[in-house]
Design a protein that fits this description.
Blueprint lengths: L1 H17 L15 H26 L3 H34 L3 H6 L4 H32 L4 E3 L2 E3 L1 H32 L11 H25 L1 H12 L1
Helix pairs in contact: 1-6, 2-3, 2-6, 2-7, 3-5, 3-7, 5-6, 5-8
Length: 236
């Protein structure tokens, strides 16, 4: 009975924040913005990632035509994912090490806290296994390295499994965080207080996008075997 009450409270808290009925008030500190600045960086990065995730998902509908975009967008996701993971981790670190501003800001609802590690691990697994396919090439990627219950597991299968897990985790995460993220990025436009540290945050995001673009151009050169006939093996 007690577990049911606790679970109901967790669900109620998560829905309240996901729907914008309740939200955390992040303290604003000089120079960096503190928890409020961190929340802005995380929200902007998350929204950029969402756009790229949607594009990446759309390319899966026809890899025969959009494999090049699938590779490029996949690489673009990596640096932004690392930035978001670090910014989120910084907030979690501040809270659990009892830094006063982050303790006042409070943690996210428990269900989102439990979902967080799965989102991070599945995202890194999906992106990492995708980069591994490029490094291995079509032939090696189709070579089984493990037999599990009579099924030969290869690198392509690992990538597919990681993507499926990531899609489920990121969908739940998006449902829980989209409205709060939109509220955070529009607060200033709606007359909210100015949060210090805006220039460094914008510089970091622009720099990350530039690094991502350079990385995408570099990695794309190694994906040529997939473009030149390797897709047939990928789709078998």
């Amino acid at each position: 009975m007690e577990r049911a009450v606790i679970l109901k409270r967790w669900v109620t808290e998560t829905l309240a924040e996901a729907l914008g009925r309740a939200f955390r008030r992040d303290p604003v500190l000089p120079r960096t913005g503190g928890p409020a600045g961190n929340a802005q960086l995380t929200a902007w990065t998350g929204l950029l990632l969402l756009v790229l995730f949607l594009i990446e998902s759309a390319t899966v509908l026809d890899l025969g035509r959009f494999l090049n975009w699938h590779v490029v967008v996949g690489v673009l996701l990596v640096p932004l994912t690392l930035v978001k993971t670090i910014s989120t981790g910084w907030r979690i670190w501040g809270y659990y090490t009892k830094r006063a501003p982050y303790r006042r800001a409070g943690p996210p609802p428990m269900l989102l806290r439990l979902l967080g590690p799965l989102v991070v691990l599945s995202t890194l697994a999906a992106l990492g296994s995708g980069l591994a396919l490029i490094a291995l090439g079509p032939s090696s990627s189709r070579t089984g390295f493990l037999t599990l219950v009579g099924y030969h597991v290869d690198s392509v299968g690992v990538h597919k499994a990681a993507v499926a897990l990531w899609a489920a985790a990121i969908s739940l995460h998006t449902l829980g965080r989209l409205i709060p993220a939109l509220r955070i990025v529009t607060t200033r436009w709606l007359g909210g207080p100015r949060i210090p540290g805006g220039v460094p945050r914008v510089t970091l995001l622009v720099g990350t996008l530039l690094v991502a673009a350079v990385a995408a151009a570099f990695v794309f050169g190694f994906a040529h075997p997939w473009m030149a006939g390797g897709l047939h093996q990928y789709r078998r």
